[in-house]
Amino acid sequence: MLLKNKDYEGIRKALSANPNLANEGVPYDELNTTKAHPLHRIADGVFNKKYTDEEAVEMAKIFLEFGAKIDGNELIEKQDSPLVAAASLHADQLAIFYVEHGANINHAGCHGGTALHWAAWCGRDKLVKKLVQSGALIDKLCINFKSTPLFWAIHGLKNGGKNPQNYLECVKILLQAGADKSIPNVEGKIPFELLSEEDLALKSLLS
Questions:
Q1: CA neighbours within 13 Å on the CB side: how many for 176?
Q2: Rounded to 5 degrees, what are φ and ψ at 196?
Q3: For the chain, what is the radius of gyration of the CA atoms?
Q4: Is 196 exposed, middle or buried (0-12, 13-18, 19+ CB in 10 A)?
């Protein structure tokens, strides 16, 4: 409830009284009691529009001040770290904040996708740029689909992704960083093969 109400002072008082809460699992909501690390749950709140990305960063700062672990309690393959969660939940500023505070940028979360995979899938060009600049593995394959972040960017756009210009920028950033556009996914397809006739700008980049 303190997170939902972005109650900074309430959060600070609770953590002052019990610093262990900084790393104690928090339920998703009253109906879904599945617990996740507080830094993950802060990202959920951005996605659910309970508060802004900027407000999320302010809450995350308080949790880190009281000992919250930037990668959550344990990095488990195919389970989202707070950074992967933020990247997949459109919490760009929060994700960038986590990167700047030492988050593991190459951890394989849901579907074995890294934060770069998820940022590319969601068309979050600013976060893609930050991750690339921070040394994210450009051609790392996800686990489930054996696909690169470049493939995820194209696939995300072709499967309901909004703001085509942002996806185009993601592709440009990845290619400029040296992404290999010839790497196939588990089905043997390369990114170019996902495109249709109207994808002129992307075809130009990937041809």
A1: 10
A2: -120, 180
A3: 18
A4: exposed
Q: For the segment 179-206, what is each residue's pLDDT rounded down to a tens digit?
A: 999 999 999 999 999 999 999 999 999 9
Which domain range does residue 28 map to? Answer: 1-104
Given a contact cutoff of 8 angstroms between Cβ atoms, the answer to whether 47 and 75 are in contact is no
Count the domains in the chain: 2
d(CA 136, CA 158): 24
Cβ proximity of 175 and 183 under 8 Å: no
Token readout for 41 is 């749950």
What percentage of the chain has pLDDT greater than the value 70? 100
User: For residues 205 and 207, what is the distance between their CA atoms, to the nearest angstrom?
Assistant: 6
Q: How far apart are CA 92 and CA 154, in angstroms?
A: 19
Q: What is the pLDDT of residue 46?
A: 97
The single-letter code of the amino acid at 37 is: H
Q: Under a CB-based contact definition with an 8 Å cutoff, are residues 26 and 3 in contact?
A: yes
What does the CA dihedral 78, 83, 84, 90 come to, rounded to 10 degrees? 160
Q: What is the CATH number of the domain that holds 53?
A: 1.25.40
Same domain, residue pair 100 and 115: no
Query: What type of residue is 50?
Result: K
**Other C-beta atoms lying within 10 Å of the C-beta of residue 155:** 18
The CA–CA distances, whole Å, from 108 to 28, 166, 182 equal 22, 23, 22
Contacts of 173 (CB under 8 A, 6+ apart): 125, 128, 129, 132
